[in-house]
Design goal:
- This protein is mainly beta and 855 residues long.
- It is built from five helices and 59 strands.
- An eight-stranded antiparallel beta sheet has the order 37-36-35-50-49-48-47-46, with helices on one face.
- Helix 1 runs parallel beside helix 5 (737-751), helix 3 crosses helix 4 (720-733) and helix 4 runs antiparallel to helix 5 (737-751).
- The two termini are 51 Å apart.
């Protein structure tokens, strides 16, 4: 928090803020909760079946970020399979029985188990699995998992745990056969255009090696990893084999050891005491051509620093030569300080940004080390070693390794299984895992059963408030008082938010604990965003001259009046009203941006608070700070390193190197400008001066207020950083309006919600009824409190029935009457209860097709 000269007793609430405080109600206690560097959404139970599923895989379509496909072992035959076309919010099934490869015509031989998935940049979806006839089968789908055809049958006899990878115009399959690793690959030149698979290779030096993974480099090299021995409690070795030319004339080379580990092939831990765990080696290449580590290969695995103490950890090593040599020492991914187990890791890289995602099962919160929760983290690519952000619990529930349902006849109870799944693309991690938590409440009778769960993982809440105080997506709080236009948030897939900062003359400077600097101040006075294919700006006017009657909203340069229902930007993007004259911008990737404006009458200036929620963006002045770096990364992925000891060097780093790196240029600017103006019009490179006074030409310094008055005005503001920010802003500027602005932002940040709507699969005949479902989730996940109240469903603007009550998990359902055939639009509107701390929200329109199709 900021340094204050003295402590004060709690003052009375000033009358000027009483109405705003009454609006805030009982919400204030939420705002002091800690925020994670990465954040999950609401768990989705993908399977919802009476039998059980585990050993799941998940893939995301690189040609359509809304399409996902998942598959798991299924205890009653075939493979469980589900597909999503809305980014994982809802799931449907290729077949009514939710399975594929179960003997139905056209779906390949009946499956036993061990599904693996890969989706290439042509749109080809590959699924590889083991059959009941002891073969390795690969199926192909060219319609996002709606239908499959049998592509190739590989291997026979004693086969186990296949892997599939598709990249660089090839698809490869690796598996264990007769206690040795085998491989085969084929060229891929287009959607559905897959060549013949080559002759099976026996990979040298892999006798007694399994439980591994496969990856294809951007240049076409193929790398496989496996663990040996495949039994025992450890120690063991993780071997690497490389086929340097992929589909060329060469074959896999000799095995080399990437690392040793004390986790054996059958290592028993309390949370997995029947099936056991292995090191579960996983591979992923950085395939982003713009990444500073393009072509780097990452290896994740499980380690047990002291053999048989059950304190297992998730480790990562990397290689810049396709696996010939590996970094040392390994990087510990899990950040807990316990002696409990982490296991079953998965690693994936974001194709378009080079970010690294890792998820795993974690027992850190289980006193007996017997129950797991799913945890995840990310790392942005840097020229040096990757540094992972603070870990976050993603799963809503906690699960032990055994359920009340007995295993199916003749099938081993494998608990969480040998592996889980992870897809990472378009800024979102999508883990999938099996547990018995019933965290989504889909088992109303309370029966505990194994289900497949998934979630969407993004960055944490971020803020750019006051004059301006930055809270990054990884919850670092620092002041950034430069003047000009800057990149506030950015990712590798098109999301971009920019803010304009305007200097203010004050009689005093402001001190920041994090930077250790005393600085003059500036204000956010305009914001711009790229939302899908559209450009949105909120600014005083094109010339930048403030107008007390209000800010101007423009979409693609055209002045836009915002109605109560908002403005649709297509593909999941929209602008809707929020708070007192503010706006909410919803991005196609799920990012929610809240902009709260306030008028400073004595200075004739608008100032804006900008808050972002569950965003995959990790770059910009609100972006993530890697471990070992004192500020967010620079646009090229490099870091400014540790905080300098010298205050002068800190000033240079922050206000020159960092500020200049993130300054908007005429080429990159999203703002609207009057003729004769540009981004240079609003740039003042010398601000803030290294040492006060804080003076500006033709401007009188704002008259400050006393600390006592500021404390009274800011008393309703909770959270040590936000409260002290408020106090100093009011003191330095002399403007009580800052306290009101903080209170409004606090209310919006802690109480805003997102509502999603869906309809179940229709029965295939006209005029059928449907089950409508809405999920209401807080934008800021502070604790695990769910909204309460009602949801009103509307079809084509008309009420579909009486409002439905939200359950304890924030979900409401409604069984409709019969619906006329044709295309309809479904909307769900959240209606908070009178005592609810949460704010209303309305879902995007969801298409509903009735008449021989699906909802």
């Amino acid at each position: 928090m900021r340094k204050l000269t003295r402590s004060l007793p709690p003052p009375a609430i000033p009358a000027a803020l009483a109405p705003a405080l009454a609006v805030a109600g009982g919400l204030l206690l939420l705002c002091g909760a800690a925020l994670s560097q990465v954040s999950g959404g609401t768990d989705r139970n993908v399977s919802k079946m009476a039998n059980y599923q585990n050993e799941c895989a998940i893939a995301k379509n690189p040609t359509n970020k809304l399409q996902l496909f998942a598959s798991c072992n299924n205890s009653t035959g075939g493979l469980f399979a589900a597909r999503s076309t809305d980014g994982g919010a809802t799931w449907t099934y290729p077949d009514a029985d939710k399975t594929i490869a179960d003997g139905d015509a056209g779906q390949g031989p009946a499956a036993c188990c061990d599904p693996a998935l890969a989706w290439d940049t042509f749109g080809n979806l590959f699924i590889t699995y083991l059959t009941n006839a002891n073969t390795v089968e690969t199926l192909l789908s060219t319609d996002a998992g709606l239908t499959f055809s049998n592509l190739v049958s590989l291997g026979s006899g004693n086969v186990d745990q296949p892997s599939v990878a598709a990249a660089a115009g090839a698809v490869w399959v690796v598996w264990n056969q007769s206690n040795q690793m085998r491989a085969s690959g084929a060229a891929v030149t287009g959607l559905g255009v897959v060549g013949a698979f080559g002759a099976m290779q026996t990979i040298p030096g892999t006798t007694g090696c399994s439980f591994g993974d496969l990856a294809v480099s951007p240049g076409g090299a193929v790398v496989q990893a496996c663990e040996t021995p495949t039994g025992g409690q450890g120690p063991a070795s993780i071997l690497i084999n490389i086929d340097a030319d992929g589909l060329g004339a060469g074959n896999f080379g000799a095995a080399s050891t990437a690392t040793s580990t004390n986790v054996g092939g059958f290592d028993f831990i309390p949370a997995q005491n029947v099936r056991s765990i292995d090191a579960e080696a996983g591979l992923a290449f950085d395939a982003d051509a713009g990444s500073p580590r393009f072509g780097r290969l990452y290896l994740v695995y499980t380690e047990e620093p002291v053999n048989e103490n059950n304190d297992t950890d998730i480790m990562v090593r990397f290689s810049d030569n396709n696996g010939s040599t590996w970094s040392n020492p390994p990087i510990r991914v899990n950040d807990d300080a316990t002696a409990r187990s982490q296991f079953l890791p998965r690693i994936a890289t974001n194709l378009l940004s080079g970010n690294i995602g890792v998820c795993w099962h974690d027992a850190r919160n289980s006193a007996g080390n017997t129950a797991m929760q799913e945890f995840c983290t990310v790392s942005t690519p840097t020229p040096a070693s990757p540094a992972f952000f603070a870990n976050a619990q993603i799963s809503d529930g906690s699960s032990t390794g055994s359920g009340s349902n007995p295993p199916a006849a003749g099938q081993l109870d494998i608990q969480f299984g040998d592996y889980s799944g992870l897809a990472y693309f378009q800024g979102l991690e999508h883990p999938i895992w099996a547990d018995v938590s019933n965290s989504t409440g889909d088992n109303p009778d309370g029966t505990t059963r194994w289900d497949a769960y998934t979630d969407s993982v993004t960055g944490g809440a971020a803020a750019n408030e006051g004059d301006p105080h930055i809270t990054t997506v990884d919850n670092i709080n620092y002041d950034f008082q430069s003047a000009g236009e800057f990149g506030a948030l950015r990712d590798g897939e098109g999301l971009l938010v920019q803010t304009r900062q305007t200097p203010v003359a004050t009689a005093a400077a402001i001190f920041n604990d994090y930077t250790g600097l005393t600085s003059c101040v500036s204000l956010n006075t305009a914001v711009a965003a790229r939302v899908g294919t559209h450009r949105v700006t909120l600014q005083p006017n094109a010339s930048g001259v403030p107008d007390p009657t209000g800010l101007q909203l423009r979409v693609d340069g055209a002045l836009t009046t915002l109605s109560a229902t908002g403005v649709s930007l297509g593909a999941g993007g929209r602008i809707i009203p929020a708070g007192s004259g503010g706006i909410e911008i919803d991005f196609p990737d799920g990012t929610v941006l809240l902009v709260t404006p306030n008028w400073w009458s004595t200075e004739s200036k608008w100032f804006l608070n900008v808050d972002a929620f569950h965003t995959p963006a990790l770059e910009g002045i609100m972006g993530a700070r890697a471990r070992g770096s004192w500020l967010p990364g620079l646009p090229d992925g490099t870091s400014l390193g540790p905080q300098p000891a010298s205050l002068h060097q800190r000033y240079i780093d922050l206000n020159q190197k960092f500020a200049d790196a993130w300054r908007v240029t005429d080429k990159t600017s999203l703002f609207d400008y009057a003729p004769g103006t540009s981004t240079a019009t609003f740039t003042q490179a010398s601000w803030p001066p290294e040492n006060p006074p804080c003076v500006l030409p033709e401007s009188h310094p704002a008259k400050p207020l006393s600390e006592l008055v500021a404390q009274k005005l800011c008393r309703p503001i909770v959270g040590k950083n936000r409260h002290s920010n408020c106090v100093f802003d009011v003191m330095v500027t002399g403007n009580p309006g800052f306290a009101k602005a903080y209170l409004i932002s606090q209310r919006l940040q802690a109480g805003s919600t997102t509502t999603t709507a869906s309809a179940d699969r229709g029965p295939g005949k006209p005029g059928a009824s449907a089950t409508l479902t809405a999920i209401v989730a807080p934008n800021a996940r502070q604790g695990r409190v769910s909204p309460s109240g009602l949801v009103e469903f509307l079809i084509d603007g008309e009420k579909a029935g009486e409002p439905a009550k939200l359950d304890a998990r924030g979900r409401a359902t409604l069984q409709t009457g019969r619906i006329k055939p044709g295309r309809h639009q479904l909307v769900a509107r959240y209606l908070p209860g009178k005592e609810s701390r949460f704010l209303s929200s309305t879902s995007l329109e969801t298409p509903v097709v009735v008449g021989g199709g699906t909802y």
